[in-house]
Amino acid sequence: MAVAELTESEREVWLRTLSNWTLAREGKAIQRNFEFPDFNAAFGFMTRVALLAEKHDHHPEWFNVYNRVEVTLTTHDAGENGGLSHRDAKMAKAMDALAGS
Ligand SMILES: C[C@H](O)[C@H](O)[C@H]1CNC2=NC(N)=NC(=O)C2=N1
């Protein structure tokens, strides 16, 4: 089902509130690298995010090594070939909150 892609001005506004995230894939995705004290903390974070992602039917692309979790958020159903939607903004904020930053 199609999801509305954020307009450029909407994107500007919420990127300012998501200061730890950067635009990627020519504006079609956002990325953030999280770092935790150890693997347990990183995997605990991923577990909490996974439950939330399933609940909202919005899933991160991510890569984990030990205490690092590299995250990319995008919405496949937004725009022509995927793009950013409010679902990415919501998930990014939730991940920041779960990581305590
Ligand atoms: C069919 C199902 O609702 C879709 O594939 C959902 C699942 N999770 C998703 N996650 C993300 N990040 N983007 C999507 O567009 C998306 N779509």
UniProtKB/TrEMBL annotation:
Any Pfam family hit: Pterin_4a
CDD domains: PCD_DCoH_subfamily_b
Entry's EC annotation: 4.2.1.96
Enzyme's top EC category: lyase
One GO term (biological process): tetrahydrobiopterin biosynthetic process
Record's keyword annotation contains Lyase: yes
Reaction equations catalysed: (4aS,6R)-4a-hydroxy-L-erythro-5,6,7,8-tetrahydrobiopterin = (6R)-L-erythro-6,7-dihydrobiopterin + H2O
Similarity annotation: Belongs to the pterin-4-alpha-carbinolamine dehydratase family.
HAMAP family according to UniProt: Pterin_4_alpha
Stated name of the protein: Putative pterin-4-alpha-carbinolamine dehydratase
Source species: Qipengyuania atrilutea
